[in-house]
Structures are given as structure tokens and as C-alpha cells.
Design brief:
This protein is of the alpha+beta class. The protein has 27 helices and twelve strands.
Length: 709
């Protein structure tokens, strides 16, 4: 129903008063004049204003009680991490850097003034927002047709960076204004500026003035020159783009604008303006890569042990710098000489039996491919998986001398073949393992069952999925090289499972249990038998190319069509796994686990193990001693036997008669030389050989004798 206002002239006085009471209660209009309508919402304006103020002050009061006023002075939740090798050498850096807060009252005047001049020239006059600045920015943006200026004050920027997200919604802007008012109410201007300088971003991962001063100029902010302060103040507008480590010329030009603004506003004199020295970039933090194959794997573990603190957090890792360089050298050298074998990539991981990873190479070149083939790639291990088959067999009651038929076999519709095409009849488990017999492994798998093999693999730490058919005996399930190497580490140390780790502090969960067992609890009862079979592999089996001058244990692995070739083994206190192949899973030519991976494994071990280095050093020392003794003995002989001996030693010829005399003298020397003077005896024998050669050369040839009358 639509109500229509009656005409006033048609109403009697009583009706008019009733109508007036119904529609506003105003006094009746003069006779003959219609009443003027009144907008009812005007009555609510005072109440609305009071409500808004009440809400505003309520929010401010709530902020005063609950908001973290000192948040800008706190460390970052995720500070910069620097990973170091075990010897303390930095290897990688990641994350943002925030140093201790600054107090603007303790800085040179030109430092704070530089930021005020370029970011908020009326900072000391406004109450949190600058209406004139907002209008000026709006006018400039409208003229340019895009955003070219901002109207935010330093207080608003502090509110935004310390309490709010970086989205550009109206709601966030309103929150920014409210927090700015609150900051102005509770803090002095110098306190606001100090918090702002302590938390604002300066590019290149540096948060706060102290961090930026160290990052770009290698000094404390209390020592900043006018030119340096101006350059830093200029970075705030676009820190990532203007960072002097990225674009020094742009940062310098922006710094000039800051100094010009300071002069225009009377913050510096003409003399100071003319005398301002150019800011010279002196980076204070050593440039480090953000990652490597090892570092990328270690970051997650390192982040879990990071405290909240200012500056950089150094996390010590298990990496051995010498072994890492050696691993990189071995991988590169062998890939470079692979030639026609069509080998595109390789990976190597080295650890101690307790799981400490000391070297990791995940590919040919990290700069070209960050994909870590030692950790992320899931490839078939081939015969290297037979470790778990034989462990299951030993658990079933067999031993290394148990015989198994090395003859063709068909299990269901599966007919495995030996790679070399040879079948040896009944052989022991040790010999079958060493020679990597596929049919023997298939027979064992059929005898113990796939479930027992899966359990053996799980017990040694394999976490990836393992198939439920007997073909797993030949390594058809996929896993990472790191996990496979850790399983062999369990055999080396006898404390399964071994969990690889990168940070020196003991990790949580299974890693801690592994460490506790290593200190003296669990053991692997089948360890001795497994080690005996693995040593046979290197002594006379498929791994002879990995033989070392010290006891070594290992297993080869090759997948179908040589798509993967693996050697995993241990010697001394190092467990090392090597993989070669192609990322596209294409076949290699003539590459088996017994060839290139075994050779790489041996090359690494020969330089890595201190026992082998000591043997090599001892042999070299013995060789030098023998050479020195022989040289001294030759001198003694030349003095003892006279000029004829010297002539022979110099390679000169002497006649047969004199040579015969020398031989007689040497016979006496050899007969009368003590047993411990082996050097003189050896030199005498060598001289005798040379004299006999002289006599033989001087003797007439048969043709000459025949020609004589």
C-alpha cells in the first residue's frame, strides 16, 4: 500500500495535528502554507559520529593492550641461515638478514634526516598520516595516469611492515591508518623512526639499517657518511631493483636525489652538499651460493634447528670439504672421459656408517640442473638390491656355504637369465652373490618369498615402495641412491636402520634411535655373513675393479639395457654409492655396475681413506729411501773400486781385461757385505750387470769369428 500525504488544505485542525504528530511532530505550518519535509537521517548524524569515535578508540585501546609494540625490534621469524662444512667453512646462504635495532638518537644527524627528506618530509609535524602528502600524491598519480607517488608516512610504513600484510586492499589501508594513529599516541617520533630504520627492507636480503650498513659498506650505521646514508635512504622505494649489489649506478643516482632533497629542505648546508662523498660499495658479507646438491638437501633439516636471533645463523653440517671436492672431481673426470658410452649424468654420495653424509654430488653441473640425482631420482638398483634377498635367505636359516643351483629356472611365467650367459651348476651363496647370479637370486626369492625380502629391505631402512612379486629380487623396485647407500651403511656399522643426516646435531625420530643403537645396543646378526659375501664380490666377483689395498666390501648393480649402473660399498669408515645413467632413462653403451661406477668408487676411496693415503705415503717413503741408499752405495762403490767403476757408472766403455778385474772386485764386495747393507749389495749386483753388458758388447760376434782366418 502506498501512502500519499494528504493536502494540508483539506484537513481540519484536529486532523492536521494528528498528521503532524504522525510525520515528525513539527508545528503546523502557517495557514495556507504546506509543511516543509524534514530528512529523518539528519537526526542520527551525532549518534553515528559518536559510534564511529567509540569504535575507533576501542580499537586503539585494544591495540594498546594486545598489539606487540616492539615487533619491529624483534628478530625475523626466519633469519638468514649459513650452512658450514664440518671444519667451519661456509658453503651456502639462504634467507633474509636482520641485525640488531638502531637508535636514531645515537646516529649521525644526516642518517635520520636522509630518510625523512625522501620518505616523509613532514614526519615531525603530522599525527600519523599526512593529508597534504596524500593530496600531492593523488594529483601526481592522476597527471601521470598511473601510480608514481605514494602518500604513506613513515609511521604508516612502520604499521604496514610490522603488523599487516602487503596486499593493497582498502581494508588493509584502513587498518594501516588506525595503527599509525596508535603508534603516534604511544611512541615518540624518534622511537617511531628508530623502529622504522630497524625493520625496513633494503634489498639483497638485508632488513634494517644495521644489516644494510654491513651488507653494502662493511660498517656500523653509526659510521655512515652522508653519501652512504643517502644511498641507503634511496633504496627504500624499490629495494630489490635499486640494491647497489644489483645496480650500483641506479642506487647512486637515487642517492643523489636524496641529497638534493636534503639541501632543498635545509637539512644540510651548501658546503655539506658540495662535500658529500660518493658512496663506495664494500660488501661486508662474503658471497655464497644459495644452494648446492648437498645444501638443498640439508636446508630442511637445518631450518628445524634455527633459533630466533639477529644476524645470520650458522648451522654446522656434516659435509667434509676435502671429500666434497674429491667427489666433484671424480664425477667430472669420469663423465668427461665417458666418450662413446652415452653416459649423461652421475651421482655420488658418501657417508659414515652412522649416517653422517660427508659428500654428495647430484649431477654433472648444479648450475645447469639443480635436480639431485642422489636424493630425488628414483631409479632401479638392479643387482645391488640382492643385498636384501640374501639377508632374507640368511634369516631363513641358510649360510654363506649353502649351495644353490646356478642353472636356468622358470618360476610361473618368469624365466630370468644371467647377464653373462654362464651357468655354473651348484654354487655357494657367497659365490652366487659375488658373481651376481640372477637365477640364484630368483631361486632364493622363490624359497623365502617376496614378503621376507620386503621386510629385509625395510629393516635396513628402505622407505620407498617395493613390489610384491618375485622380480623384485633383481632390483625392479625404484629407490634413491641415498637410501640404498644408507642400507649398505647399516651393514657396515651393524646398526640398522641408518638414517642419513646433514646437520651435526642429532636429528629427531628414527635418526635419534639409530644413533642410540650405534652407541651400543642393537646389532645385525647376519652382518658378518653379508660382509663376507660383499668382500668376495670385490676380491674375485663382479666388483674387482673396485679392489683396494685395504679390505673392501660392495656390490654391483646394472638394470635392463644398461639404463642404470650402480656400485655401492664400504671400506674403512666410509660408505659410498655411485650411480651413472641418463635422465631420460635411455640405455648406455657398454656400461655396467662393474665398470664405470666401480672405477669411480675406487678412485674416490683411494684418495678419501686415510688408511690408503698412509699406505701410499709409506710406500713412497720406502721407495725414496731405497733410491737414496742405492745412490749412496754407488758413490761408495766408485770410491772403493776406483776410476774404472766410475767410468762404467758414467756409461763409458772399458776394455774386457779391466772389466774382468772389476767383476772380481765386485764378487769380493758382495761376499763380504753384511746382510743389513742391502743397498751396497744391490748396487754391486747392478754394477756387475752393467760390466757383463760391457764385456758382452766387446766380445766378437759369430760373423766376425767366421771371418777370421
Amino acid at each position: 500500500m502506498i501512502f500519499r500525504r494528504p493536502r494540508v488544505e483539506s484537513l481540519d485542525p484536529d486532523e492536521y495535528r494528528a498528521w503532524s504528530a504522525e510525520f515528525g511532530g513539527q508545528e503546523p505550518p502557517p495557514p495556507g502554507e504546506a509543511p516543509k519535509p524534514r530528512r529523518r537521517w539528519l537526526r542520527w548524524l551525532p549518534k553515528i559520529a559518536a559510534g564511529v569515535l567509540l569504535v575507533f578508540f576501542g580499537i586503539v585501546a585494544w591495540l594498546a593492550i594486545t598489539a606487540p609494540l616492539g615487533k619491529a625490534l624483534e628478530p625475523l621469524e626466519t633469519p638468514a641461515l649459513v650452512l658450514t662444512a664440518a671444519d667451519g667453512t661456509p658453503i651456502a646462504r639462504r634467507g633474509s638478514f636482520k641485525a640488531e635495532p638502531v637508535d636514531v638518537t645515537k646516529l649521525p644527524d644526516h642518517v635520520g634526516e636522509a630518510f625523512v627528506a625522501i620518505e616523509d618530509r613532514r614526519f615531525y609535524d603530522h599525527i600519523g598520516i599526512d593529508i597534504r602528502g596524500i593530496l600531492r600524491a593523488a594529483q601526481a598519480n592522476a597527471a601521470a595516469g598511473r601510480v608514481v607517488q605514494g602518500g604513506s608516512t613513515i609511521t604508516q610504513q612502520l604499521a604496514k611492515t610490522s603488523f599487516l600484510s602487503l596486499d593493497r586492499s582498502l581494508t588493509r589501508k584502513a587498518q594501516e591508518v588506525i595503527i599509525a594513529f596508535w603508534l603516534e599516541a604511544w611512541l615518540t617520533k624518534d622511537e617511531i623512526l628508530s623502529r622504522y630504520l630497524s625493520s625496513v627492507y633494503f634489498g639483497d636480503g638485508a632488513y634494517g639499517l644495521r644489516a644494510a650498513s654491513e651488507q653494502y659498506f662493511s660498517k656500523e650505521p653509526e659510521q655512515l657518511t652522508l653519501g652512504e646514508a643517502a644511498m641507503l635512504a634511496g633504496l627504500v622505494k624499490a629495494p630489490s631493483r635499486l640494491a647497489p649489489t644489483n645496480d650500483y649506478d641506479a642506487a647512486r643516482e637515487r642517492g643523489r636525489l636524496v641529497i638534493a632533497a636534503m639541501k632543498e629542505q635545509g637539512l644540510i648546508t651548501d658546503a655539506e652538499w658540495r662535500g658529500a662523498r660518493r658512496a663506495v660499495l664494500r660488501p661486508g658479507r662474503k658471497g655464497l651460493p644459495t644452494g648446492s646438491y648437498f645444501a638443498d638437501w640439508a636446508w630442511a633439516e637445518a631450518a628445524n634447528s634455527t633459533p630466533d636471533t639477529f644476524g645470520e645463523v650458522k648451522i654446522a653440517t656434516t659435509l667434509d670439504s676435502r671429500l666434497q671436492k674429491l667427489a666433484e672431481r671424480v664425477v667430472k673426470r669420469n663423465l668427461d672421459r665417458a666418450g662413446w658410452h652415452d653416459v649423461g649424468e652421475a651421482a655420488l654420495v658418501a657417508m659414515h656408517p652412522d649416517g653422517r653424509v660427508v659428500a654428495m654430488v647430484g649431477g654433472r653441473d648444479y648450475a645447469k640442473s639443480e635436480f639431485n640425482r642422489a636424493v630425488q631420482a628414483k631409479r632401479q638398483p638392479g643387482s645391488a638390491f640382492k643385498l636384501f634377498v640374501y639377508l632374507a635367505a640368511l634369516r631363513s636359516g641358510m649360510d654363506v656355504d649353502t649351495e644353490i643351483e646356478d642353472e636356468p629356472v622358470t618360476i610361473g611365467d618368469w624365466s630370468p637369465k644371467n647377464n653373462d650367459g654362464k651357468y655354473r651348476g651348484p654354487i655357494t651363496l657367497k659365490r652366487a652373490f659375488a658373481l651376481s647370479s640372477n637365477v640364484a637370486a630368483a631361486r632364493l626369492a622363490n624359497a623365502v618369498g617376496a614378503g621376507a625380502i620386503r621386510k629385509a629391505a625395510r629393516d635396513l631402512g628402505i622407505r620407498d615402495g617395493i613390489g610384491d612379486d618375485l622380480t623384485i629380487a633383481l632390483g625392479t623396485s625404484t629407490m634413491s641412491l641415498l637410501d640404498l647407500t644408507a642400507a649398505y651403511a647399516a651393514v657396515a656399522g651393524g646398526t640398522p636402520p641408518v638414517v642419513p643426516y646433514a646437520v651435526s646435531a642429532p636429528p629427531q625420530g628414527e635418526g635419534m634411535m639409530s644413533r642410540l643403537r650405534a652407541l651400543g645396543g642393537d646389532s645385525l646378526p647376519e652382518r658378518a655373513a653379508l660382509r663376507e659375501m660383499m668382500r668376495a664380490t670385490i676380491d674375485y666377483g663382479t666388483g674387482t675393479r673396485a679392489k683396494l689395498p685395504v679390505p673392501a666390501f660392495g656390490k654391483t648393480g646394472t638394470t635392463q639395457d644398461s639404463r642404470d649402473a650402480i656400485f655401492v660399498g664400504f671400506a674403512g669408515d666410509l660408505v659410498v654409492g655411485v650411480w651413472v645413467g641418463n635422465d631420460d632413462n635411455s640405455p648406455m653403451k657398454g656400461v655396467l655396475g662393474s665398470t664405470m661406477p666401480a672405477v669411480m668408487w675406487r678412485e674416490f676411496m683411494m684418495e678419501a681413506l686415510p688408511e690408503i693415503r698412509q699406505i701410499a705415503e709409506r710406500q713412497a717413503e720406502e721407495r725414496r729411501a731405497r733410491e737414496e741408499e742405492a745412490a749412496a752405495a754407488q758413490v761408495d762403490l766408485s770410491v772403493l773400486l776406483g776410476p774404472d767403476a766410475e767410468a762404467v757408472l758414467r756409461g763409458e766403455r772399458i776394455d774386457v781385461a779391466r772389466a774382468a778385474v772389476l767383476l772380481g772386485q765386485l764378487g769380493n764386495v758382495i761376499a763380504n757385505t753384511p746382510e743389513d747393507a742391502e743397498g751396497i749389495r744391490a748396487a754391486a749386483r747392478a754394477l756387475s750387470d752393467r760390466i757383463n753388458k760391457v764385456i758382452a758388447e766387446a766380445a766378437p760376434q759369430p760373423e766376425e769369428q767366421a771371418a777370421r782366418p
